[in-house]
Amino acid sequence: MKSRWLTGALRFASTCAFGVVLQSGASAAASLRGDVFVVDPGHGTKFPDGTPLNVGAVGPGGLQEEQVALEVGEDLAALLRAAGAKVVLTRSHAVPFRIATDKRLDNRARAALANRLGATAFVAIHCDSSLEPSAHGTSIFWLRPNSVSLANAVRARLRPLDLGEAAFHARDLAVTSEARVPAVLVELGFVSNRHDAALLAAPAFQKREAQALFNAIADTFAR
Ligand SMILES: [Zn+2]
User: Fold this and answer.
1) Ligand 1: centre distance to CA 6 (Å)
2) 130 CA → ligand 1 middle, Å
3) Most buried of 34, 116, 144, 222, CB within 10 angstroms?
4) CA atoms lying within 13 Å on the CB side of residue 79
5) Could you report the per-residue pLDDT of 44-56, keeping only the tens digit for each?
């Protein structure tokens, strides 16, 4: 009886410790060291002459998907780097636009980069849009079985943000079909929905989305 109680107590203690690790940048720093992540803020692609090729959705209030994706992508990259990981952004504050002549090929190239680097995972960040203003919530897509754990972790970590869930299923997209490494595409919410858009536009909420994605990555890959 005594040893069983002790085992239970130890298990409880280690569960608590794990919870602390996820909250603490210092502890997490060791755990993602050596990992490489490709973070892909969706859209933001121009033709070589500077005209838009892939701008993404724009909400009725003017909120741009490509800008929200870039902010959350940069926030996520900062969290991953603070945890010791290497991060490659497919576009960034420094280079906010990609140059291409074909949207689908450009999207495939983003995931191909993750394959080439042998990345631990590829995370594509988007926002949704619908002609139906009441459509709202997050969506998570993946394709290959090696991505299911990450997809489940992202789902669990986004749930407390209370946006609701629009979709969660395997889906053959340019990035999910190209990626051979674990890969998810996350829609952070709908720019076309008034409630979602107000949250998505707020830097503090963008940071909460990034933190949720980081926690999901740490849940899945941290050692
Ligand atoms: Zn998109």
Assistant:
1) 50
2) 12
3) 222
4) 23
5) 999 999 999 999 9
Q: Give the 3-state secondary structure of residue 98.
A: strand
Taking the centre of ligand 1 as the mean of its atom positions, its distance from the CA of residue 219, in whole angstroms, is 25
Q: Which helix (H) or strand (E) holds 129?
A: none
Distance 71 CA to ligand 1 centre (A): 14
**pLDDT at residue number 183:** 98
Q: Are strands 121-128 and 36-41 parallel, antiparallel or unpaired?
A: parallel
pLDDT below 50 — which residues of the chain? Answer: 1-30
Q: What is the pLDDT of residue 102?
A: 98
Taking the model in full, what pTM does it have?
Answer: 0.87
Sign for the CA dihedral angle at 112, 115, 119, 121 comes to positive
Distance from the CA of 81 to the center of ligand 1, in angstroms?
Answer: 25
Rounded to whole angstroms, the Cα distance separating 13 from 110 reads 41
Q: Which of 97, 54, 94, 53 is nearest to 74 (CA)?
A: 94
Distance 70 CA to ligand 1 centre (A): 11
